[in-house]
Structure formats: structure tokens, C-alpha cells
């Protein structure tokens, strides 16, 4: 049965759409810390248009969103595959659309019910309760061949992707109590302890349930599955990265010990053993729950910041869409998140002089998908770069290796709008002003809201919409327009009881010089 918006919701979207033209997003606007009335109306317009992209991404019969769609929102331009993260993003975006008034309660309930019914029937790894990385959104079948290339797929179960699906399920359960039983039945089977390596006190990137016939994977069974799986050769070792959502959920469910919160690196220790990383950190050792922690930070333009792995916005700020880290950890995350945003702004507006900012993995305007970031805000030596030319900053590691002269110019910088939406909470005026400039100066806004990325010197635009990136935008707008709705649904209960005390223990070695 086809879904139709209620008359009230249809009228609301139509009214918002009257102002949803690029001209409405022009002009830098006031650079203040609070929303003006005009800003709030503009944010509602952006929410309405972004939701339109999800309406086009989802396959009505299954309730599964596609991974991506063309800028004209035609069904034939869908990518033909989806992931657990995409499904989680659609669940929370549907709730945002309801809470902001873009769709009615009945429509939201029907959409959520369709998706949950399909998810309950997806093939998964029975012993862990985890979902595979790729499914056909039209049928729900696990993909064994990638539709865009025909390449074979080795079915993989990702810790971070399952973390975002579990987030969407938890949110849906609390936002729509009539569906709580269905959502909880799926989520409560998911055991994040299956990713936790007690020897390293860290989680793995994921596992294959059949031997991938590659040299890096490590056979093991961390959660009593009764049979080995093949884990990724790497752990998620950096603290300030998006996989921490899986860690939080595992701790909240008692599947991962609390000490794991302190098992990853704020920065790597101050030693030449780590001189392949970005630069020498400052900081001191501390101990929490018996775990030694190097409270390190990296210097950047007069600040000391706990970096991400690559220097991108979504690594740092996707998790606090749902978990109030800066409130629970006022001496740690509460100090770091605003500094991290300031670093991104500093790079785009001053160091690289692009005139725009917001660097995060996105579609490449030249084709394909790429990681973008601010090199010096990442732990990794090469880091993610902000321009198409991959201009890196090779800083010295004092006493261990020399660096190279800093670049005197940067190339064709690529900004992605979702990065500015992630920053709304920490630099609202500057975020709205940046988005206004992007809409004013480029052909960067379409029927589904902001296109995914813009190369600001060539003017090349990636005219596609990605479910993940649109989902981050919807979550940010749901918090902004509906009184922190995303956090109110996810954070209370076990997550707050178990994770908040851990965040409250710690003081990051961050600040301004």
C-alpha cells in the first residue's frame, strides 16, 4: 500500500518549499552564537529539502534506504546497495521529519514499521546478532556482488556500521513506543562484545564469518560464539573517532568492560616509537580504572587539540549528535569539541584561505568517494587532506625526525555541507553563514537540499545525495529544531548510567596557547 503524507504534513512541506530556493540561503548572515528567527526558518527549509532526499532514497516496499541517489532524485539514479549505517540514518531521520512537522505521526509510524519488519528478516550473523555490510535495498538480500562494478563481495560485519544501526534502533524504540518491542528484539541480539579484544582493550574493525583468504585477518572468538571468525588485522585505536559509538553501546549493555573507555589513544605517547604520526604531542600520564592513559594533545594554530585519526569533522562530531559528550565530560569533550571546530574553521578561512570550511569524507566532485580533512587535526602522519591535490603538512617530530617546509598555498579545497551541520552546536552563527555562502556562490543546492560536496576553486559540485551524509544533516537539524530530540531519545538510561561517569573522570590536555 502506497504511503501518502497527511494533508497537514503536505501543507507544511509545501509552505516550507516556498522559501527553499537558493536565494533564500544567500548572504553571510549574522555570525552570532544563537539562532535568529530568519536562521531558524532557513534551517527548517533545509530540513524539509533534506528529508525529500530520504523520501527518494527509500524503497517503499522494504523501507530500506539506498546508499546514494542522483541530484535529480530519480529512482533510476539510486546506487543499488545499502548498509546498516544507512538504515540507522533513515530510522532517525524519519523521527526527525515527524518531530519537526514534515510528516505526520501515522506516516512516521508506518515508515518505521516497514523498515523494522524488513530489518527483522535480513540475513545476519546468528551468533553475534550483527548485520552484514551490504544488502540490496529492493529485496533485502545480502549482497555477494557489488551492483555498480560486479566485483565479488566478501560478507563483512563492521563494528562501527552496526553501532549506527543499533543507535537508530534504540532511537526508534524510544521515539515510537508502539514499535519498541520490534526494535528492541533486533537490537538486544546485537553483542558488541564480539568485537572487543581484551588483550588490547580495544575493539576490532569487524570480522568475516568465512575465511576471506587474506593475510591480515586474525581468527578468534571474543564473545563465546562457539566458532572462530576472522577479525580485521587492525583495532580502532584512536579515541576521538566515530567507532566510539559502538564502544559506548557495548559498555551500556554490559558487553564490554567500562575500562575499555580508557583503552584507546587520545594521542600516541610522547616517544620516537610513534614518530610516524603527525607531530610530537604534549601531555602527561594519568590512570583510570587501572588503565594508564597518556593525556596527549596536538598543537594547531595556537590551540592544543585531541585529534581524530584523519582530521575530519564526522570522526569528531557524529557521535555527539546522539550522546551529550560535552555535558557528560565538561573537562574533556566539553573543551575539545569547540576547539576542533575552531581548527576546521581556521584551516578553511585562514591557513588555506578557501573562503569556506567543513572537511569530512564525502563524494569527490571529480568522481568517486574520498576522505577529506585537516591534516594537522589527525593523528595519522599523512592524514586526510582538504584539497584535490592532497596537499599535506609534514610537521617535524621534535628530537626524532625533521619535517618539511609548510606549504605556502593549497589547491582546490573540497567542503562538504554535512560538516557545517555537525558544527552547528559549537559554532552556530559561523556554520549557518558558511552554508549560506556555499549556497550563494555555487550550484550546490538541489531538490534534496545541499549536494554532497563542492570543490571551491574549480566550482565543481558532486550532484549526489548520500544517505549517511543526509542522515547527519537530519540529526543535527533534529537537535536544533526539536529541542535536542536525538539526544533525548538515545542518551538516557543505561548509556548515561554507565558512560557518563567515565567521561566525568577525565581532563583532556587541551586549550589555547
From TrEMBL:
Coiled-coil residue spans: none
- Keywords in UniProt for this one? Signal
Instruction: Give start and end of each Glycoamylase-like domain.
Output: 300-480
Q: Which residues form the DUF3131 domain?
A: 46-190
Signal as a keyword of this entry, yes or no, is yes
Q: Does the keyword Signal apply?
A: yes
| Signal peptide segment | 1-25
Cited InterPro entries: DUF3131, Glycoamylase-like_cons_dom
Protein name, please? Glucoamylase family protein
Amino acid at each position: 500500500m502506497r504511503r501518502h503524507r497527511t494533508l497537514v504534513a503536505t501543507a507544511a512541506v509545501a509552505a516550507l518549499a516556498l522559501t527553499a530556493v537558493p536565494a533564500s540561503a544567500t548572504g553571510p548572515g549574522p555570525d552570532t552564537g544563537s539562532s535568529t528567527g530568519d536562521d531558524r526558518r532557513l534551517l527548517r527549509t533545509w530540513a524539509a529539502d533534506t528529508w525529500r532526499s530520504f523520501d527518494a532514497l527509500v524503497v517503499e516496499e522494504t523501507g530500506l534506504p539506498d546508499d546514494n541517489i542522483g541530484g535529480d532524485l530519480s529512482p533510476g539514479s539510486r546506487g543499488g546497495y545499502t548498509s546498516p549505517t544507512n538504515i540507522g540514518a533513515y530510522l532517525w531521520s524519519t523521527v526527525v521529519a515527524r518531530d519537526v512537522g514534515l510528516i505526520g505521526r501515522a506516516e512516521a509510524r508506518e515508515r518505521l514499521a516497514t523498515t523494522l519488519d524488513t530489518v527483522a528478516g535480513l540475513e545476519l550473523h546468528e551468533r553475534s546478532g550483527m548485520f552484514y555490510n551490504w544488502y540490496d535495498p529492493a529485496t533485502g538480500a545480502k549482497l555477494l556482488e557489488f551492483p555498480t562494478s560486479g566485483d565479488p563481495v566478501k560478507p563483512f560485519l563492521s563494528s562501527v556500521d552496526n553501532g549506527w544501526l543499533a543507535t537508530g534502533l534504540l532511537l526508534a524504540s524510544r521515539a515510537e513506543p508502539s514499535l519498541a518491542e520490534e526494535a528492541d528484539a533486533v537490537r538486544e541480539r546485537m553483542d558488541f562484545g564480539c568485537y572487543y579484544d581484551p588483550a588490547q582493550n580495544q575493539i576490532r574493525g569487524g570480522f568475516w564469518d568465512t575465511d576471506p583468504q587474506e593475510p591480515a585477518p586474525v581468527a578468534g572468538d571474543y564473545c563465546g560464539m562457539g566458532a572462530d571468525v576472522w577479525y580485521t588485522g587492525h583495532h580502532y585505536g584512536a579515541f576521538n573517532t566515530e567507532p566510539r559509538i559502538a564502544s559506548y553501546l557495548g559498555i551500556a549493555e554490559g558487553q564490554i568492560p567500562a575500562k575499555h573507555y580508557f583503552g584507546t589513544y587520545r594521542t600516541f605517547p610522547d616517544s620516537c616509537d610513534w614518530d610516524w604520526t603527525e607531530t610530537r604531542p604534549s601531555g602527561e600520564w594519568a590512570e583510570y580504572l587501572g588503565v594508564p592513559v597518556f593525556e596527549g594533545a596536538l598543537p594547531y594554530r595556537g590551540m592544543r587539540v585531541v585529534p581524530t585519526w584523519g582530521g575530519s569533522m564526522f570522526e569528531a562530531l557524529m557521535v555527539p549528535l546522539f550522546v551529550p559528550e560535552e555535558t557528560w565530560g565538561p573537562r574533556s569533550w566539553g573543551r575539545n569539541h569547540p576547539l576542533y571546530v575552531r581548527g576546521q574553521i581556521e584551516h578553511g578561512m585562514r591557513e588555506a584561505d578557501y573562503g569556506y570550511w567543513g572537511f569530512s569524507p564525502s563524494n569527490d566532485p571529480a568522481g568517486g568517494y574520498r576522505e577529506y580533512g585537516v591534516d594537522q587535526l589527525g593523528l595519522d602522519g599523512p592524514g586526510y587532506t582538504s584539497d584535490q591535490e592532497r596537499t599535506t603538512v609534514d610537521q617535524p617530530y621534535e628530537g626524532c625526525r625533521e619535517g618539511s617546509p609548510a606549504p605556502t598555498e593549497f589547491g582546490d579545497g573540497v567542503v562538504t555541507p554535512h560538516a557545517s551541520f555537525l558544527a552547528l552546536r559549537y559554532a552556530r552563527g559561523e556554520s549557518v553563514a558558511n552554508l549560506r555562502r556555499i549556497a550563494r556562490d555555487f550550484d550546490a543546492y538541489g531538490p534534496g537540499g545541499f549536494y554532497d560536496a563542492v570543490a571551491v576553486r574549480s566550482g565543481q559540485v558532486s550532484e549526489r545525495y548520500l544517505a549517511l551524509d543526509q542522515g547527519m544533516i537530519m540529526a543535527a537539524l533534529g537537535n536544533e529544531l526539536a529541542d535536542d530530540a536525538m539526544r533525548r531519545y538515545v542518551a538516557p538510561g543505561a548509556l548515561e548510567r554507565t558512560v557518563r561517569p567515565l567521561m566525568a573522570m577525565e581532563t583532556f590536555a587541551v586549550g589555547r596557547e
